[in-house]
């Protein structure tokens, strides 16, 4: 801050010279004062530029306290890890299954910052400054984005309550889905060109059990999700499962 305040003061002679004009200053010595002033002005401009450069942008705030800087850096690292995971698992969609841990870490880190706001110790100002002191509020914006993405993906609907991995009913569903597909493929082998009604019947007879179970489990899952819904729109299966069975 200090150099920025000093700089204009040191510019004063130059400003004076310019304000008085060349005529008023041309009386002195071998070198006209106006020229001398211009030369000085150039030097001062250079100096000023350097000082500004060294001081950082106008309005640059002092460094965060170490503890707060650590909070912010940890959040940044978690964001980067989660973003990388979401991107890598975008296709085929496996983000609920694979990014769950990253998401939980990010929530925890955001929680640390939020809790620090209520701390009456010195980190009070720091956490507050991370969360609310500028127009963008990147930390809040990022956290909101991840929350919305996670909710839109309905990940909670097919993950185990508090550990990584798909819930049992989801695993069962995918297994039945696989069995049904395999059964269909097996029974339709070599008949893709022409399917007689009899052959259809054959498939239905052979695969009806798995298919019926699959259907029941699917309805169960939807009912379950609707029943335990904290938010109104979670009657969908999670995106991983939707994508696996192409029902999205
Ligand atoms: C409050 O901040 C101090 C110093 O940063 C820290 O030691 C303490 O654990 C914090 N308390 C809570 C409740 O977060
Ligand atoms: C994101 O969700 C978590 C858990 O539900 C919540 O604690 C946090 O406040 C949310 N973040 C934002 C920015 O709303
Ligand atoms: C996980 O399950 C426990 C007990 O079954 C419950 O108390 C807790 O709220 C659940 N957590 C979540 C995030 O659903
Ligand atoms: C899920 O399956 C595992 C292994 O098959 C089993 O040990 C566990 O008890 C099951 N959990 C629930 C909630 O059914
Ligand atoms: C079904 O399961 C088998 C054996 O576990 C596996 O080889 C196959 O890739 C699975 N098919 C699908 C569509 O997931
Ligand atoms: C099923 O289709 C195959 C080939 O198209 C045919 O040879 C076979 O007779 C059919 N089976 C029945 C039960 O219609
Ligand atoms: C499934 O097929 C078996 C054998 O063909 C039959 O006995 C049973 O009634 C069928 N079930 C349904 C629900 O169609």
UniProtKB/TrEMBL annotation:
Domain of life: Eukaryota
GO cellular component terms given for this protein: cytosol
Name of the gene encoding the protein in the UniProt record: Ostm1
PANTHER family noted in UniProt: OSTEOPETROSIS ASSOCIATED TRANSMEMBRANE PROTEIN 1 (PTHR15644), OSTEOPETROSIS-ASSOCIATED TRANSMEMBRANE PROTEIN 1 (PTHR15644:SF2)
Segments crossing the lipid bilayer: none
The keyword Signal appears for this protein: yes
InterPro entries named among the record's database cross-references: Osteopetrosis-assoc_TM_1
This protein's name: OSTM1 protein
Alphabetic keyword roster: Signal
Signal peptide span: 1-26
């Amino acid at each position: 801050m200090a150099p920025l305040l000093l700089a204009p003061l040191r510019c004063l002679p130059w400003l004076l010279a310019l304000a008085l004009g060349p005529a008023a200053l041309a009386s002195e010595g071998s070198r006209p004062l106006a020229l001398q002033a211009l030369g000085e002005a150039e030097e001062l401009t250079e100096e000023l530029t350097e000082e500004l450069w060294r001081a950082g942008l106008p309005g640059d705030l002092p460094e965060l306290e170490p503890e707060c800087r650590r909070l912010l850096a940890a959040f940044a690292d978690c964001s980067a890890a989660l973003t990388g995971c979401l991107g890598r698992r975008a296709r085929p969609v496996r983000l609920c299954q694979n990014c769950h841990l990253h998401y939980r870490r990010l929530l925890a880190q955001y929680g640390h910052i939020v809790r620090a706001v209520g701390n009456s110790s010195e980190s009070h100002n720091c956490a507050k400054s991370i969360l609310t002191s500028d127009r963008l509020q990147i930390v809040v914006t990022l956290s909101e984005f991840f929350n919305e993405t996670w909710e839109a993906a309905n990940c909670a609907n097919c993950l185990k309550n508090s550990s990584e991995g798909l819930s049992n009913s989801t695993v069962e569903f995918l297994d039945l889905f696989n069995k049904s597909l395999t059964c269909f493929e097996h029974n339709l082998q070599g008949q893709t060109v022409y399917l007689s009604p009899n052959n259809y019947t054959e498939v239905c007879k052979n695969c009806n059990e798995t298919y019926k179970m699959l259907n029941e489990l699917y309805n169960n899952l939807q009912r379950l999700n609707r029943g335990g819904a904290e938010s109104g729109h979670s009657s969908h299966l999670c995106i991983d499962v939707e994508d696996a069975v192409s029902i999205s």
